[in-house]
Amino acid sequence: MVGAVSHHAHAHSHAHGLLDPSLRRSRAGLRAVGASLAVLGATAIAQAVIVVATGSIALLADLIHNAGDALTALPVGAAFLARSARAEEIAGRFVVAAIFISACVAGYEAILRLVDPHAPDRLGALALAGVIGFAGNWVAARIRARAGHRLQSAALIADADHARADAYVSLGVVASAAVVALGLDLADPLIGLAITIVILRITWQSWGTVRGDRHHR
Asked: Using CA atoms, how far apart are residues 191 and 186, in angstroms rounded to an integer?
């Protein structure tokens, strides 16, 4: 009888040994997703206020992308909550789709402004918004990259690459403010189009990351 109880206790302990790593991975992933969501959410809110004040299309393109980037944390977080490899793969694809949609919206807005040119106002605030976007994305990228490599999550790694590239895209907003200050009003929508092209490139790279993870399973 004692032997049977001992065997049961050993089996129970072994089962917990199998489950605990999965649970720890889920919690670590959720912490990374939550932290990056908070950072990017605050970044998007700050930029939204400045978009209203300046009317910049380059900044609007960056804001749309940053807001979409923040929202991609939701399916990634759900995948970690479910502790499902298949759910993570689906989340990675959702991330890619969100990046592509944000590129389309940003490109559309830039083309509209080219047709009906209007220089942005308050260029100092516009440059500040670009700096805020750079800082927010850089911090979010570091959070996601560390967790993604530690947890071997292609969805988190793709999201980290996305945020890191967005940090440099945000510097385009600073460039827009500088060039418009020199009197080149069309620079704002043209930089908005340039940002759109960069976002499309990020889409392709992220798709390669997600597909590569699927082929290695």
From this structure: 9
